[in-house]
Amino acid sequence: MDSDTVVTIPDIAVMYVAGEAGLPIPEQAQAAFPALEAKLPTLKSRKFYGVGVGPEYRACVALDERDDPQALPHPRWTIPGGRYARRRIADWERNTARIKPTFDALRERPDFDPSRPWIEFYRSRSELFVMVPVR
């Protein structure tokens, strides 16, 4: 398993689809991402995030210069920036069972900040960064 790195990220403007309340996070993600992606003209060169806001999972895509703010197909939101402990999961599509235990381990850090959301950054089809907020 990779070691933790602490990074500072900026606020990230996104549009998102929220998962269905009451379902477990993995089930929320499995429904939210297809709904998010279905209304995008292309997935190419997009940055995708999964974000836990309390019990709600949000499948997010970063806004960019191609997006017309008046014609966005999903609600807008800002992923709060700040300091995050980050751990990489290689070949995440084959290692989805590692995602929850990785989050659980990162939440055990003494500097964990539960007041901000946790983040999955899908850097590529083969690389996922799991991030929890830290003080």
Features:
135 residues, 39% strand, Multidrug-efflux Transporter 1 Regulator Bmrr, Chain A, 8-stranded antiparallel β-sheet, 8 strands, alpha+beta, single chain
Described by its quaternary structure, the protein is single chain
Q: What is the CATH first-level class name?
A: Alpha Beta
From the 3D structure, determine the CATH topology. Multidrug-efflux Transporter 1 Regulator Bmrr, Chain A
Report the span from N to C terminus: 23 Å
**Strand proportion:** 35-45%
The largest pleated sheet is described as: 8 strands, antiparallel
Radius of gyration from the CA trace?
A: 14 Å
**Strand order across the largest sheet:** 1-6-8-7-3-4-2-5
Shape: globular
CATH superfamily: Regulatory factor, effector binding domain
- For the record, the count of structural domains works out to 1
Q: Per CATH, which architecture?
A: Alpha-Beta Barrel
In DSSP terms, counting alpha (H) and pi (I) runs of 4 or more, how many helices? Answer: 2
Q: Unreliable segments (pLDDT under 50, ≥5 consecutive)? A: none
What number is the mean pLDDT? 93
The H/E string reads: EEHEEEEHEE
